[in-house]
Amino acid sequence: MSHPLIFPDFDPVAFHVGPLAVRWYALAYMVSFIIALPIAKRLNRLAPEVATKEQVDDFLFYAILGVLLGGRLGYVLFYRPMDYLSHPLEIFKTWDGGMSFHGGALGVILALAYFSWKNRLSFLAFADRIVPVVPIGLGLGRCANFVNGELWGRPASPDLPWAMIFPTGGPIPRHPSELYEALTEGVLLLCVMLFAASRPAARERFGFLSGLFLFGYACARSFCEFFRQPDANIGFLSGGTTMGQLLCIPMALAGMGLMVYAMRRLAQVSAHV
Fold first, then answer.
1. Which residues are annotated as a binding site?
2. Can the keyword Phosphoprotein be found in this entry's annotation (predicted)?
């Protein structure tokens, strides 16, 4: 029997800028946007071009607002509505943690819709140029979760070579599910999205890449939920499912619907040419 790994004693603060403490989670967001922006610009230059590079630059502000506001409100509404209803001022204490990807996704979708309308862009076409880089933020965000020692996994066999004991997870070895999510929702999904975005046939079908991202994330997240410990205040739902898996159902359906729509729409356009 192998001995489980002991979670490293990471400092939750990455570094200080004067009196300001920059935490790993905030750093993950900042690095994600820095890396993702030039890649999104490059994708946008591929035919058919749907926006200018200045418009991609301008959208960064809207994307940040969508992620932060949507992620926080999503966590409040999906995971702890009664707690925050009793203590509404706690909503603003973002430094205590609590962000939801599904809420962040809704926030970015609304930001994309508003920005596209404001700049008279095709919503689906512009979204297709943005979503391929989203896994960068997902992967780095999960790495930050691991560094913070949060969102750890379910109990694992001590024989699992990478089973780990987390300081807040009790004395039993657990799956480092944050790293599973970083690899699937981050690295794997990024590779799939960039490969698909490099195919002219996928770019021409407006909405296909957006649908592929929604469906791909839903599959990756649902799989990782089998190893992730559910939130203590919610626990398991009916049939042993989790809130994360439940929220992935409409996402997967929307993704499949968008891909089918994109395929049929191009077929209809081609038939009338």
1. 142
2. no
